[in-house]
Amino acid sequence: MSAFNAINDLKEPKKTTRDRKDDDEGEEEEGNGQRIQVRNKHLDELEDDVLYHLALSTKANDLVAMFNDVKFVCLGGSPRRMEEFAFYMWQQLKTDIPAGQTLENIARATDRYAMYKVGPVLSLSHGMGVPSISILLHEVMKLLLYARCSDVVFFRMGTSGGLGLKPGTVVITEEVLDGMFQPHFEIQILGEIVRRPVTLDDGLIKALLLCSRPDDDFDVVTGKTMCTSDFYEAQARLDGFICEFSEKEKVEFLKNAYNRGIRNIEMESICFAAMCRQANVRGAVVCTTLIDRLLSDQIDAPADQVKTWDKRPAVLIARYICKKMGIVN
Question: What is the pLDDT of residues 91-101, one digit of tens each?
């Protein structure tokens, strides 16, 4: 199937979730056949669109046959985490795999990202930082466009530094701010700075919060997330190779962030939120905290403890997916 034909199948206008009234009280919107919103008229001109970093293309692969049933796209930083999540969803969804077979990394022909498919769930690694997740999202969203997917929900899961929270706490992002505490995503295009909104879906946030259980051995909270362009200086760490500010300035900055409602810090959410907004898909960011940055810079918890914390966002997201599919675990 050519890229040209895939785009032309999507020409009919559709009402977007952004047309909803502001007073819908944040209830989760049910699926209505909404497809990825096309944001690039030049895709019409492509006879073959090579999704280079996923080792797929519209000519070499039948993307409709391979991916049309995808309803949930789950992204995380490391290939290992997302491979483990794929096998975890295999168990949760009670999916049968023929004897002698196993889950395969669909993007194994490239060493950039990992991608696994378990029924309607796509599990992908996005690397570290905005540039890496941006590349992946461009290609994944085109993939879903060409596959004619509808009512797709996106999740970013991962780890973060907390602010005023016990390590191991799971934060569901309610609003994303950049390192200047601004609620928009800035990108340099053709020599100019373009600002894009980073609104997340209130109904999805509330639905995820309801997936926590009283007997869980971890806390789940909502709060603002600060997305920075760097792990060290931009996050006010004193232990990087370069540091040109004092400990007092660091503490003042982090306390300022906390007072603004920021409860965790990471490096991908602002791009994720902006691209979900542009594509008109619902998205949520769910991260566990590995450290309280008001107390320390370095992550010194035992490795097995960090691995336990790392899995907590996956548990919450899996519960949401199973609930939507009517699966009781």
Answer: 999 887 766 66
